[in-house]
Amino acid sequence: MPTKPEQISARRQTWQAFSLLRRAALPDQHHLGWAVMWLVLAALLEVMGPIMGKALIDEHLLPHHLDWPRMAGLLAGVVLTGWIASGLRYLQLVRLSGLAMRSVMRLREMVYTHVLLLPMAFFDRAITGQLVSRVTNDTEAVKTLYIQVLFVMLDSTIVLVGTVAAMAWLDWHLMLIVLALLPAVLLIVWLYQRWSAPAVTRARALRSDINGQMAESIGGMSVLQANNAEARFGKRFAATNQDHYTARLSELRANAWLLRPALDMFNIILLAAVIYLFGQREMTAAEVGVLYAFISYLARVIEPLIQITMQFSQLQQSVVATARVATLLDEATATEHAAPEHAAGLAAERAAANDGSNGDAPAVAIRHLDFAYNEGQPVLHDLSLEIPQGAFIGIVGHTGSGKSTLLSLLLRFYPARHGSIAIHGVPLDAIPNDRFRAEVGLVPQDPFLLAASARENIDMGRGLSQAQIEAAARAAHAHDFIAALDQGYDTALGEGGSRLSVGQKQLVAIARALAGTPRILLLDEATSHIDSQTEQIVQTALDELRGKVTVIAIAHRLSTIRDADRIIVLNHGRIAETGAHEQLMQIDGGLYQRLYLLQQLAA
Ligand SMILES: Nc1ncnc2c1ncn2[C@@H]1O[C@H](COP(=O)(O)OP(=O)(O)OP(=O)(O)O)[C@@H](O)[C@H]1O
C-alpha cells in the first residue's frame, strides 16, 4: 500500500520529537529508571487494595468469621497499600518533574545557542515572535510529553492491565462483559477529539500570532506611533485575540458538551450493567465482596482508558511542538557552511598564521562575485576588487545599488553564489569563525546597544581588561563622555542605549568594534544619523586608524569618505567608477561627481 506524504511527515515528526526527547533527558537517565519503578509499584499496590477489601467482606464480615488479627491485617493492607501508593506516586512525580524541567532547561539552552549561530539568511525568513515562541512555549512541550503524556499513558496502561487481570481473577465472565462494553469509551473520546482537534490546532497557531504581533509592535513602536497606527494595530491584535478566545471556547465546549456528559452516562450504564448481572445470578454471600471489588475496579478501568485516549491529542500537539524545536535545531548554522570543502584554504591560512603574517596578500580580494538573495533577482554582478592592507576605502552609490549587500557578503552573513572573496589571501569560508570575527569588525548603521553598562557594551563578553576597553574608547573618541557619566564605564546605558545621544551611541559602537583589534573594520553608514560635529570626530578616529587597520566604509554622506584612499562607486550592483575623490571629480557627468554636487547643493 502506498504511503501518503502526510503519514511520512507525521512519522518523521514523531521520530524527530522522540530523538530530541532522548537527547534532552540523556544526562538524567537514572532518574527516569527510578520514576518508572515507583510508578509500576504504585499502580500494582493500587490494584491490590480492592482484592484485600473483597477478602475482608467475603471471608470475615459476611460469614461473621471474626478472626480479628487477620481482619486487622486486611484492613491495614487496604489502607497501607493506598498510602504507600500515594507516597510512591509523590516520589515518582518529584523525580519526573525534576527530569522534565531539567530537560526543558537543557533544550532552551540548546535552542538559544543554536539560534545565535544561524546564518543571516535564516533571519530574513524568521518571524521574531515565532522564534521566541520556539524557545519558550515549544520547549515546554517536552515537559508535557514527559509528565502529561508518556507517564500518564504508562501509568494508565499499568493500572488498566492490572485491574483487568484482577477482574479476570475474581470473575472472568463478568470481566469479559465489562471489556466488551469498553470500546464505547474509545468511541466517545475519538468523537470528542475529532470535534475539538481543529479548534486546538487553531488556538495554538493563534497564540503564536499573538506573540508575533506583540514582538513586532514593540520592536517598531516608534514607527508605529509616528504613523498614528496604534488604533489599527490595536484592532488587528484584538481580532487575533478574539479568534484565539473563540478557538479556546470551542475546545472547552466540546469537552463540556460531549466528553464529560457522555462518559459520566457511560459510567452509570456500566455500573447498572454490572449490578444487573449480579442481580440475575443466584447471589451467594460470598459474591458480595466480588461485587464490591468490581465496582471499585470499574472506575479504575474507565479513567485510565479515558486518560490514554485523551493523551493521544496531547501527544500529537507535543510531538508537533517538539518536532518544530528539532527542525530549528536542524537548521544548518553559519559555521557548518564553512570548513569541509575548503580544507586546502584552511591549510594555507594555518601556514600563514604560523609565520605570523599573510605577507603582501591584499586585505580583501573579490573576484567575479555574483550574488542574489532570490533566484532570478541578481543584486551584485561580476564584481572584482582588490583592497590593500591598511587602506581606507569608501563605498558609495544610490539606494539599492548593493552596498550593504557587499558588506554582508564580506561579513559572511550570506554565501556568495558565484566568484570568490578572500581575506588576507584566505578564502572567506575557510577561515574559522573565531578567527574571522576577531579579524573583521563591524560598525552597523544601527549601533544596537545592550541594556548594560558602557563597559559591557564595549567588551561584549570578550573579557577585556579595563585598559583595553579604555584604549578602544579613546581611539573611538568615546572615552571623555563615558568618563563623564555618573558611574563612568559602569553606568548602565538603558535599553538600546537610551541614555546616550545617537552620535554617542555610534561612538560606543565604534569603540566596541575597535576593542576586538580587528585588522579590517567595516562601517555601514555609521555617520548617516549623526551631526556634523560628531561626524568630524568619527573622521578623526578613522584617520588615526590609517595604515594600521583596513577601513571599508559605506557612506551616504560623502564628506565621511572624501579623504579615502579609494572610493568605489556602485551602480545597480556593478562597479561604475573607482578612484580617489579628486580623480572621480574629474569625470565629467560621472556618477560620483553628480552625487557630490547634489550633496553640496543640499548642504
Ligand atoms: N535580505 C534581503 N532579502 C532580499 N532582498 C534584499 C535583502 N536585502 C537587500 N535586498 C535587495 O538587494 C538590493 C540591494 O540592497 P542593499 O541593501 O545592498 O542596497 P544599498 O546600496 O545598501 O542601499 P541603501 O543605501 O538604501 O542601504 C535591493 O534591491 C534590496 O531590495
UniProtKB/TrEMBL annotation:
Residues 34-317 form the ABC transmembrane type-1 domain. It is found in: Cell membrane. Keywords: ATP-binding, Cell membrane, Membrane, Nucleotide-binding, Transmembrane, Transmembrane helix. One of its GO terms (molecular function) is ATP binding. The chain crosses the membrane at residues 32-51, 71-91, 145-167, 174-192, 257-278. SUPFAM superfamilies: ABC transporter transmembrane region, P-loop containing nucleoside triphosphate hydrolases. CDD domains: ABC_6TM_TmrA_like (cd18544). It holds the Pfam family ABC_tran. Residues 364-597 form the ABC transporter domain. SMART domains: AAA. This is ATP-binding cassette domain-containing protein. PROSITE patterns: ABC_TM1F (PS50929), ABC_TRANSPORTER_1 (PS00211), ABC_TRANSPORTER_2 (PS50893). One of its GO terms (cellular component) is plasma membrane. It is a multi-pass membrane protein.
